[in-house]
Amino acid sequence: MIRSADDAAVRHYIDVPSLTLEIRKFAALQIAASTRDVAPRIMVIAGPPGAGKSQGALKAALSCGYDVATISCSLFASDVEGGATSTLNAMLEEFEGYSAQHRKRVLAIFDDFDLSIVARDDKTGVSSNTNLLTERLQYLADNRHVYRNADGTNLAFIFTINNAEPLRASLLRDMRATWVEHDPCRVTKANIAFRILDPQTAQERTLVEKLIRRHANQPVAFWKALRLDLDAARLDDLLGNGMPSAHVIDAAMAQRAPIDEAVLMRAARKRSGSRIRNYLFTRR
Hints:
Structural class: alpha/beta
Number of helices: 10
């Protein structure tokens, strides 16, 4: 999927200033004629799961004037030799064609790259597709002119990863890739949580502050999930008499409602203290 700045979903994404600045520096080097064929076309964002790497990168890249393609690295799985490389080439040709048609610069985000077939460890071993895809990516890193946007800039790539150890070091060495670590500190996560939950009154701010202190170690995704829980709870009355139209749901969501303390606390306890059970072997 290729997203543009006018995509309605993007307005819900959280801007992380430190990550945004790094991506703007990366984008500036891609855009400038004096540096585009020298600066690495790959950026690697490393950090823990749920830290907001993918959505933060997407929003930042859109703010730099790119249309952004988001790619699940599971798409590279293939039983056919050369299948992963063919998939990558087809994607990049599609992005190049999109840029020519829409006259827009394109940047591709490869999500959870360390979980793709490029990763290698004692359990998975190394397949021919692993080697072929790695070699192709190294070729693209070294030959920045291959696949260009309509304005002459190179197609740029962002890889998000949680763990660099399974990846071949030569693929992501200096001058092939720019590295950024994204592991928000407690203060940053607290600021993000405030922006997501958006308390409006003194009582709501006190409630959110208490919740942040209690769940200070939770990732950014935790707070986005709580926001969705609050929104979903507001639909209970509407859904009691059947399924309303999308227009009715949108109208209800557009009205700001006070933060329900009971709903928020219950959702936080559920999300922080429980895991989904294995129902396959559960005795009744």
